[in-house]
Amino acid sequence: MVTVSRLRYWFALAAIAVIVVVAGFYVYSRYRFFSAVKDVPAKLGVEIQQSTDTFSLSKSEGGRTLFTIRASKAVQFKQGGRAELHDVNIVVYGRESNRFDQIYGDQFEYDPQTGNVVAKGVVHIDLEANPGSDLHPELGPPQELKNPIHLKTSGLVFNQKSGIAKTDEPIEFRIPQASGSAHGATYDSKASTLTLASDIRVQTTGPRAMNLAASHGVITKDPRRAVLANVKVERNDDTMLANKATLFLRDDNTLDRILAEGDVQTSAKGETSMETHSPRAEFFMTAKGQILTAIMSGGVSLDSTGTNHMTGTAGRLLADFGPDAKLDKVYASGGVKLFQAPGSSAAVLARVNRSPQLVLAKAQRHTAATSPSDSVELFAQAINFYVKGGRLLERAETEGPGQITITPQGAQSGAATTVITATKFTAVFDKTRLSGVHGAPNARVVQSTPGQGDRITTSSALDATFDKSGNISGFVQQGNFQYHEGEPGAKVSRAASAGKAAYNTATQVLTLEGSPRVIDSGMTTTAQLIRLNRRTGDAEAQSDVKTTYSELKPQPNRALLASADPVHVTASRMLFSRATEVAHYTGNARLWQGANIVQAPSLTFNRETRSMDARGSSNQPVNTVLVEQDKKGKVTPVNVSAARLSYTDQQRRVRFEGGVTIRTGDDTVSANHVTVFLKATGTETAKSALPSSTPSALDHIIAEGDVVLREPSRHGTGDKLVYTADDGKFVLTGGPPRISDATQGTVTGSSLTFYSHDDRVLVEGGGTTRVVTTTRVSK
């Protein structure tokens, strides 16, 4: 990234154009002056030594005065024909009379034999390109010079034969906006080339003053340009370096553009330090000297340090500046990468090859003692960068598809690498730190963990956020969200869909909203909201929860949940543990498979063992439906309610506890706890096998604790009741057991046996005596 603080260095180069102007007018004026001096001996008499005071000479062409020469004294010597002028003032008006350039000094000497014209002592030059539109030389100098350019040097030697002027002495110049110097200069009037030998210095003035230095310079008239070698520009803590800089000038000598070549470097130090490198950089200027556009090409690299370490590479950068000369926008193309290294800062920059791998290695060594963080790389073929206040990177937008790669520090074992892609990305920055990314459409996130299957999410749009350490804190995906994961080489083990998904990287929890659905190894859950822990596989669902367990295999010699039919569960809330395969449902939970139904305020189901635990209260008991089938094939539903139900399918045993009530037809049994043993699915009775749509059939029941049996015509109590479904036999013991009949009275004994389908009652007493009493019972 190129900031104004770095590109403004190039404004200082505009001051070098002053040297072009100085050289042009200076040599032109010197040449005219020396030609006039050559004619002085003939005008004064060549054969004798002469002198005169207040010497004056002018030359005109086409009715226009080209220049005037005035001196306080002129002397010509007979020997050698040498001539001297003292206190000289030369004014050059130009062929269009549109100039007023002055050259003045104490003494000049001309030697016609060698052709050399030598300035004795200091020479001053004032250049004024356009002092006024109505300039008349005969009226004298203008009242006020507008922004004159002042040049000062000494030891100047001009050879009239070769047309070359040279000095080995320092040259100084000054303009209202800058001053400068060089050491030694050569001007070739025939080639119109000025060479500044060494030690070129330019200092600008004003609130953004800066210094420019170059080792060598060549200035030409056609083409109108200045070429400088080993250029360095400094302003406060900002620096620009280049092996070569070419300044292209307009016809009025204003700076048009600057071309820097050869290891072009810029650096800006401060709270956030930044460096750029490129083989070539070109800067286009306005007529007022403000930068308009900057282009860096040939492979550009960026390093930024501070709160976070960021590097970047691109094939080409194009920077646009606003009317106030502040950087407004940068267009990067040719394969653009932004790389944010892990850690709080990195003082050492990768200067060779500038690859993300080198930068990452240095940053890791620097942050070895700090908390782990992520490296983030943004890649696209082209990216637009938008700058706030001319200095701070505000946002970046990719042109075409982009990719963001997030790698944990050191790629530590078990850590996932995340790759995010989208048709277009918009990245938001806090200073140089990447703080957020928006991707749309066709957003896709792939998380890869060594030894595990990829976790892939897709959506219409994605918004990712990053914390101050550079770690991704989470992302939100919206619009047809899809998720799936699976073991390597295996089919998808988990999938999800929703209208919206939010992922928190710290907790690894994925929150789904908008008709979410999660499929986990044959377990499908829907709800209004689902939270999925991608690390543990645990899940939480809220509001209108429904789970369907499919892909079930039939279990031989099982009962309540033994068939291959799906198991369905609805509730207000669900908590699922993938480690134990146990799901806990609360809030009007209802589980069913075929005709087998269990309802409870709270229900826990284990799909591996096909066992369950349902809990309720006296106000909201657990309810289930079983069936009883007699020898004739008659099927009677059996409704059971209790405070708690527990069932293990392998044992075909249902345990009811707490206020248990069993209702079948007009008969009711209540007890503190009841154990119901079921017949295996598919078991045939004397008449037929139960269809799969029928609830599980009773084999026998054991009821214990405060047992009460109620039938339309009799009432029984005891401590224990054993009921066998095949023969409809009840055995009541403990208490002692008691049966009351509306017509036969009350019968007690140590054991009472009776049947639901006939009138027999067997009463056993104490000792070895068995008493059998037959009682007529109305049904």
Q: What attributes characterize this protein structure?
A:
disordered C terminus; lipopolysaccharide transport protein A fold; rod-shaped; mainly beta; 779 residues
Our Rg estimate from Cα atoms comes to 50 Å
Shape: rod-shaped
Overall pLDDT = 78
Count of strand segments: 52
- Per CATH, the architecture of one domain is Sandwich
CATH topology of one domain: lipopolysaccharide transport protein A fold
Strand content of the residues, in percent? over 45%
Describe what you observe in this structure.
This protein is mostly beta strands. It is built from 3 helices and 52 strands. The two termini are 96 Å apart. Mean pLDDT is 78; it is low at 1-48, 344-371, 683-688 and 767-779.
